[in-house]
Design a protein that fits this description.
Layout lengths: L3 E4 L6 E2 L1 H14 L18 H8 L7 H15 L8 E2 L3 H10 L3 E9 H11 L5 E7 L10 H9 L7 E5 L2 H10 L2 E5 L6 H6 L4 E3 L4 H7 L2
Parallel strand pairs: 1-4, 1-6, 4-5, 6-7, 7-8
Antiparallel strand pairs: 2-3
């Protein structure tokens, strides 16, 4: 049986793709670059805002200076529109309540920058006792580097054998593998199930309620 469940945020707990897309397209338009259809954004996200903006910029404009400039515009807009369209996926709140009522410790490990990660968790899950909420911070490498998981384990000391990491992408499955903790891939997120399998997800679920069975198994 597990005792700590670590969740990715975007594509796992929250369907945030529309707000991310609108913020990126706003920044692109302000700078005079072409924008992208909403349907293309699930494959742009997953490695942090910097990589998102590199991917949406034209290839000839992906230099560090251009990315830094457009990032400021993106973040100013996104900070004001964090939950215009963002919602928890169906069944997420009931699943989190169930875990908390059973005494599981809950944490978040996201490649979204820290202030937005904390704001979204506080807005959508104010009653839930998340023990540790980590987004991207200066000096901490992005997932799939496992440093963010190790930071959570410093906050919430737990044997790795009692930890489950839940996410929607190959980045998440690789993060769990590198951290040597159990992985659970979710089918409702931004990336296809084939990607989860490609990155050796130990479990794949199609409904949040299925997670309870996995983490309570002996």
């Amino acid at each position: 049986m597990k005792s700590l469940v670590i969740f990715d945020l975007d594509g796992t707990l929250l369907n945030s793709i529309a707000d991310l897309a609108h913020a990126a397209n706003h920044a692109l338009a302000v700078c005079g670059y072409p924008t992208h259809d909403l349907a293309t954004y699930p494959f742009f996200v997953g490695n942090g805002v910097g990589r998102l903006l590199e991917r949406v910029l034209p290839p000839e404009n992906r230099d560090p200076e251009s990315v830094a400039y457009i990032r400021n515009i993106f973040q100013e807009y996104y900070d004001k529109h964090l939950w215009d369209y963002t919602v928890p996926y169906p069944g997420i709140e009931d699943m989190l309540d169930n875990l908390a009522s059973r005494g599981f410790k809950l944490a978040v490990a996201s490649n979204k920058y820290q202030s937005a990660t904390s704001a979204l968790i506080g807005h959508f899950f104010p009653r839930l006792p998340f023990e540790s909420v980590h987004g991207m911070r200066p000096g901490v490498p992005a997932k799939p580097d496992p440093s963010i998981v190790f930071d959570i384990l410093r906050d919430v000391p737990t044997p790795k054998a009692e930890v489950t990491y839940v996410g929607d992408s190959g980045v998440d499955m690789e993060t769990a593998r590198r951290a040597c903790v159990q992985s659970v891939g979710v089918s409702w997120g931004f990336r296809p199930v084939a990607e989860l399998r490609q990155y050796y997800a130990e479990n794949i679920i199609s409904d949040p309620s299925e997670l309870i069975r996995i983490v309570t198994a002996d």
